Every structure is written in structure tokens, then in C-alpha cells.
Amino acid sequence: MSTPRVTSRDVARRAGVSQSTVSYVLNDTPGQAISAETRARVLDAAAELAYTPSAAARALRAGRTDTVLVVLADIPVGDTALAIVGALSRTIRPHGYTTVYQRRDGRDLRTVLRSVTPVAIADVGAFSPDEIAAAVERNVPVVGVSLDGVDGHVMRIPQDEIGRMQAEHLIARGRRRLAYAASDDPDAHDLTAGRIEGVRAACARHGLPAPVVVETPLYADAAARAVDRLRNRADPVTGVCAFDDEVALAVLAGMRLGGLSAPADVAVVGVDDVPLARLVSPALTTVHVRSDDVGAALGRHVLRRLKPELGIAEPDDQATVHLVVRETT
Amino acid sequence: MSTPRVTSRDVARRAGVSQSTVSYVLNDTPGQAISAETRARVLDAAAELAYTPSAAARALRAGRTDTVLVVLADIPVGDTALAIVGALSRTIRPHGYTTVYQRRDGRDLRTVLRSVTPVAIADVGAFSPDEIAAAVERNVPVVGVSLDGVDGHVMRIPQDEIGRMQAEHLIARGRRRLAYAASDDPDAHDLTAGRIEGVRAACARHGLPAPVVVETPLYADAAARAVDRLRNRADPVTGVCAFDDEVALAVLAGMRLGGLSAPADVAVVGVDDVPLARLVSPALTTVHVRSDDVGAALGRHVLRRLKPELGIAEPDDQATVHLVVRETT
DNA sequence: CTGAAAGCGCTTACAG
DNA sequence: CTGAAAGCGCTTACAG
Questions:
Q1: Straight-line distance from CA B19 to C1' C1, in Å?
Q2: Does A115 lie at the interface with B, CB-CB under 8 angstroms?
Q3: The pLDDT of residue A1 is above 60
């Protein structure tokens, strides 16, 4: 029942040439003068047999593939990660590289490499510098974004800077008591740490108390309880740095339920600048991370390593983040 | 500079055994009685050399891999696609299969197979029944969701049903003049067609005029112009079926700019039920697609083909969709 | 219990 | 211009 695989040998037989000739024709191997007539016969035979070369055999023989593996950290894969991956893919594709993605799913880099033979790895926050070094030793170049801002990757998304930016903005708006609304998704934990650190640092710099941290589920009633806790205190919170735009919207929904309005009672600032941020009312002030740029820069880092002859200049090593001020602050 | 690859031969040499023994130990090959002492020596040697078997060689030799390739259609990859893929991955992982993703990026299935040797393909709306048949002929089982509702895949997300549900709900709410707010993302086109068809069918059934279709960018001002067009007519639109929740929010933002409110002036219903839908005000009525179920069912379809001995029952072949009524209708 | 050998499907020197 | 042969790194009958 299972038809045996069509191999280049079958194509050769059908075209009446040798296997090498098939390979030369199909790969346009330079320096091989193949007669137009032979070439046509080979191409026809391949088409008739619907020949697809074995990726495994090519990889084994060549010692490498054209596949760049993107490993995504076990974080909530949102617009940011998708934008990074998309831009990376678009950057390297014109140079003949194929992008495949995987979530880390708790595995170490070694395990991941048991099922794929990539020519390079783009690590989106998944691995530690140690693991990366181990892969590099195996001759697989690794480029990566450090999502938590830790070094050892070629690029960093400065999470502390994001938090700092949120806090500084609220402080500039006259808010003296800040809170941090964290996500209740455990996968978000690593991202959160750096951001809170940035908020804390900004508060400290201005002589303000450290932010009150409160976990905020994405439901209005639960968020309302969280908001209650922020307000029912000797020094009620007047400014909230939210983990992302979704959490920010949850805070706003919770506030609404409690009869509070933004920015009059509490100012709220998110992170991500999802399309919806500008569509809701009041429109959300948020920190925009240029994820496309991160992906493109990562792609250029890959190309630099894989094709030094392209002479690609050293790309940025830090993502650009900026504040988009709208109506909630 | 580039260290040569550590092979099983190196491990064998170091452990003082043959290559076969290394393979037996590392793969726990059943029916091979290996002395505990030998086993330990091999394991140690492998660890010391940081041996990682060649994925390519294993694939070539075995004729297959443990990799299930998910190919995503060139549609806007949003929460729905991610949920499908996540659930699929979680379903097959316990059975030893690794999931890798790729976007179709306009390639045909043959081209995709040039760089990967998957044991099965999960097609998320990317390929036509013809292409799928060709892959199956190459002994690669393909399971797939048809995003546009067209047959030939093992599962369908009934886009027409989604549109029908939106329209029926608005009609039940007494709206007699409906519009369809389409996305301006060209990648959304295939999804849109089926949904509009469903809206159209519902209108026809109730003797109502066909929906006015208007493209709605994700910006309040542009959306306001779109809304203007829907209202400034002999028979002003009173109900809008939006392509997804984002477009629905854009419509609502446009309405707000024009002094219109929902549902008083115009009722709006989205699709996706993103977390934000329940957090915004007014909370969004929307059609919820059980994407997790789709992914899990897809995973079970994969397992059925790959491991018939598991005796997995034939999963559903159609995604469950249901209406979540909130405040905008 | 262990080893030598074949072969998966390809590409690439090398010989003609 | 074309073909025979080696070898990429594994696994698995097969022989001992």
C-alpha cells in the first residue's frame, strides 16, 4: 500500500542518465556543462515522477540545511513574538533560508536539536547564555533576543526600560503612588520581573514608595477586586503600570465597575500598543516595542553569521521602545 | 576552527565498545541485553563528549522523524490560529511527537517538503485538497482544518455558520438593515468570503436586503468614515457583523466619533471572543470559536493515523461555534 | 552479550 | 559532457 519513495535514482533511470546528472540538473550545479536536451529529459522525468528530494539525505550529505529554527520562550505568545518572528522570516527568506518555529516547551537546547538540524537558531528568549554557548560549540550559530533583558544574547528587549518608561510617565503626570498590575499567567513571570524592577527604580529615584504589585486576571469582576485593594489603603494608588495592554484594559474594566475613571481617579499605562489600544475609549496610553525592528535585526544577525560575504553591518542590539500617550494618563 | 561533529563512532571509541552498542544503549533498544557496566560506560562517554545524534542521519535511516509539521495559511495569525496550534501540540507531545510550525508563505506543499521531513502534516488552512492528496501519495499523512469551510480537510471551521450566527442574532434583535465590516488586511480575504456568504444567506432567508459590505481599517477616524457610509443612506444600517473583534472595536470607535452608540443606534457583533471583548465597554457581543477543541481534534486525527493501535475514536470534524451575547447588541 | 556490514538518498570529487 | 564510487551518521538485521 505504501508506495516506495521516488528517489533521484528513479529519475535517472527514467531519464536514461546517471544519478549525478540528475543532481547537477536539479541543483543547477555550476561548472557542469549539461546539454539542453539532457537537461530537458531530466526535468521531464522529475516532473512525471513528482520527485521531491529527501530533505534528510540532503541535510546529512551537505552537513547543513537551509532551515533557521526559531525557538520561542514559553511565554504568552502574543503580537510581539509573532511580529518578531514574522520580520525575521521576511528578512532571511530572500537569501534562501527557511524559517521554522518551535516553542521551547521546557526542553533544553540539546533536546530540541535532536529533531531538527538547523543552520542557525534564533532564540526568542528561550535559552540561557550557557545553553547557547553549548550550541555554538556544536557549530550552530545562535542569535537571540533576550526578552528579560539579561545579557548573552545579541539583542535585548530592555524590560526594565519599559517599566521605567511607564513609571516616569505617570510620575511626570503627578502620580505619587504607583502600582504594578501583573498578569496572572505564570508564563508571563520572567517578563514581569524586569518590568517591575524598572518601575521600582523610577519610584526610588523620585523618592516615592515602591509600587504595590497586584495580580490582575482578565475578568472585570476579578480586576475590580484588585483595584479595590489598590484604592482602599491609607495612600490610595493613583497610577497603574500594567503588564500589557490586556491587563491594562482589565484594570480599566475593574475601575469602571468600581465607579472610577481614568485618568481622573487613576491613570493607567499598558505595554504592547496592540491595535485595540487606540480603538477603545478612553484610548490607552501604552509603551510600544518596535518588534518588527527586533525581528529584522535578528534576521540581519543571522545573515551576518551565515553569509559574511554579504557585508551586512552590525545591527542594533537593543529594541527601540517608546511611549504612546493617549487618554488614560 | 569549526570543531568536527561528535558522532556515535566517537562515543563508541571512547567507551571502548562498538557503534551498535552505543545505538542500543542510547535508544534503549528492546531485546538487547546490555550489561549495566557497559551501559554506564556508554552513557558516560556520551555525556562527556556532549554527544547529540544527527537528526538528519536518524531521519534518513529511519525513513521518518518524530516531527509533525504545522503549516499555517497566510492569514492573519491571531489568537485562533495560536490556540489551534497550541492545543494540537499539547495533544501529540505525550506520544513522542515534536511540533514545528511554518507559515505557508505562498509556497506549495512540495516546496515546503524540500526542507523538512515530517512524519505528518497538520495543515491549518494552507493547502488545497489537490495538494494534500499529492502529499498523502508521498506517504505523509496530512490532517487539516479548512479555515474557509471548503471540504477535503478532516476538519472544517464553518465560516458561513459564523456569519449566519452573527446575522441571525442581529435580526432576532430586530435589526432589518445589516452591514458587513470587512478587514482591510488582504490576508483576511479567504476567511471573509465564507462569512459574508453566511450573512447574506441569513438576510435572504428573512427577506432582508443583502448586507452592505464596507472595509474597516483599524483606526477610529477611518472607521468613522466607514460608519458614515453605512448610516447616510435611504435605509441606514442598524446592525453590523464585523469580521473579527478588532474590526468590531474599530466600528465602535468610529461610531463613537460620529456620536452613535451601541446598541441603541447600531448593534455590533464580532468574532473570536478575544479576552479584551469582555473587558471593553460596552462589552462586545461576539462569536466564539472553540479553537482549542479544533487543535485537540486535529491532534487526535494525527495520532489516529500515526498510531492506529491507540484506538483513538474518530474526532469531531467541525469546530463548535457559539454566540456570546454581551452589551453591543 | 558484542561487532562488522549494509544501506537510507543524496552530492561531489574523480575518472573517463 | 557523463558515470561509478565514496561517504555524510545513523540503525538494524546478522553473525559470532
A1: 14
A2: yes
A3: no
